Amino acid sequence: MPVVPDCAVPLQFSLRVEACVPAAETIGNVNKLGPSLLCIQIQTSDRSNAAAAGYYTHRADCLLPTMKKQHFNKTSLGTVALYFTYSALEEEMDGNRDQPQFAPLYFPEELHRREALAKDLEFFYGENWQAVVQLSEATRKYVDRIHEVGRSEPELLVAHAYTRYMGDLSGGQVLKKVAQRALKLPSTGEGVQFYTFDNISSAKEFKQLYRSRMNDLDLDQETKLRIVEEANRAFGFNMEIFNELERVGKTIKDEVLDGGLPEYDGKGDLSKCPYYAAKTAAGGGSACACHMAMAVLRHPTGQVIMSACIALLAGVAAWYLM
């Protein structure tokens, strides 16, 4: 499998043969692919499950604008990252819309997300959101790479577009509902415009069309391999952004402790807590791990992490069912 040396992400990529394409001798072996362009299929080995899980957490958590307004400035790194990422991607797609190796995949009315993300950011930040949001270091690297590809190797935009848009279409509606329920966002769609594709009536049919267009692109074997490598690199950038978010998430427990645990409300039998007896016997007092967990989940940022765990399962299923 081709792997980008400077992007240490333990994910393996191959080109998948669609049933209607008889040109390949062996499924999953890029070196034996026939002349037809085959859709990129992200595959993970057993060793890469942890990295894959991290990526899906990133999609479900940092990509979902599921946080209350007063805490958005802390937990919105992912949504802001998406705005800058899609702005760069769509700028380069617009500039290369007539490039023959990418033009068939240009669907601005159906897919473009920049304006939808701008609406979400305005909902959370207010009218002056552009003066508040900042480009993080990890996102800057991703954006710079997209611009580099658009200027010098526009055919590689195929990898970035497929990785982003097809995943959003696959899990978008599920994640949208998770977001609305988790933090009681308006049912009218404010805050989750990113996952609303008004000009696509059937996600399944559109994805079939998109893959068909990919299969029909006139690309040689070397270009196919470079697209696979670029998809691997795109995953690496997403993982870097996830790591940034992870560092933010690690502050949740400290904030809860600094603010003090909520007092035991007297409801229920505290002695039934599975951690209570051991904690008391160890002389540590009556503070219970379950008590800590409830305190974290009452914290607004903790609620975001909780919703991310639920969305993680939806995200994984969406990608594997694409």
UniProtKB/TrEMBL annotation:
Its EC number is 1.14.14.18. InterPro entries: Haem_Oase, Haem_Oase-like, Haem_Oase-like_multi-hlx, Haem_oxygenase_CS. Pfam families: Heme_oxygenase. It is an enzyme of class 1 (oxidoreductase). The chain crosses the membrane at residues 304-321. GO terms for molecular function: heme binding; heme oxygenase (decyclizing) activity; metal ion binding. The keyword Iron applies. It comes from the Eukaryota. Keywords: Heme, Iron, Membrane, Metal-binding, Oxidoreductase, Repeat, Transmembrane, Transmembrane helix. CDD domains: HemeO (cd19165). One of its GO terms (biological process) is response to oxidative stress. Belongs to the heme oxygenase family. This is heme oxygenase (biliverdin-producing). It comes from Acipenser ruthenus (Sterlet sturgeon).
